[in-house]
Amino acid sequence: MPKRILSGTVTSDKNEQTITVLVERRFKHPQMKKTVRSSKKYRAHDPQNQFKVGDIVRIEECAPVSKSKRWQVVVEASA
C-alpha cells in the first residue's frame, strides 16, 4: 500500500525536531452541492529543524516516531 503524501503550511516550529502542518482539503458537500473547506493539523518529524512558520511543505506517512508523530517531512513544496 503506498504511503499518503499531503501538502500543507507550517503553523508551528516551536518543538525540537517537530513541526505542525495545517492541511486543507476542499470537497463538494453531498447534499448541499456546495464546496466545503475542511482542515486538519498533523505533527511531522523535521530532524534538521529547517522549516519555519509559513513554509509550504509535503509530508509523508511513516512509522510512529513518537506519541503524536506519524508523519515526516519529504521536501519543501514549490509555492
UniProtKB/TrEMBL annotation:
SUPFAM superfamilies xref list: Nucleic acid-binding proteins (SSF50249)
Question: Would you tell me the Gene Ontology cellular component terms?
Answer: cytosolic small ribosomal subunit
Q: Does the keyword Nucleotide-binding apply?
A: no
- Which top-rank group of organisms is this from? Bacteria
**Keyword tags:** Ribonucleoprotein, Ribosomal protein, RNA-binding, rRNA-binding
What GO biological process term is on the record, naming one? translation
Classification via Pfam families: Ribosomal_S17 (PF00366)
GO MF annotation: an example: rRNA binding
**Purpose of the protein:** One of the primary rRNA binding proteins, it binds specifically to the 5'-end of 16S ribosomal RNA.
Subunit structure of this chain's protein: Part of the 30S ribosomal subunit.
Family, similarity comment: Belongs to the universal ribosomal protein uS17 family.
Q: What is this protein called?
A: Small ribosomal subunit protein uS17
State the species of origin: Pararhodobacter oceanensis
> What is the name of the gene encoding this protein?
rpsQ
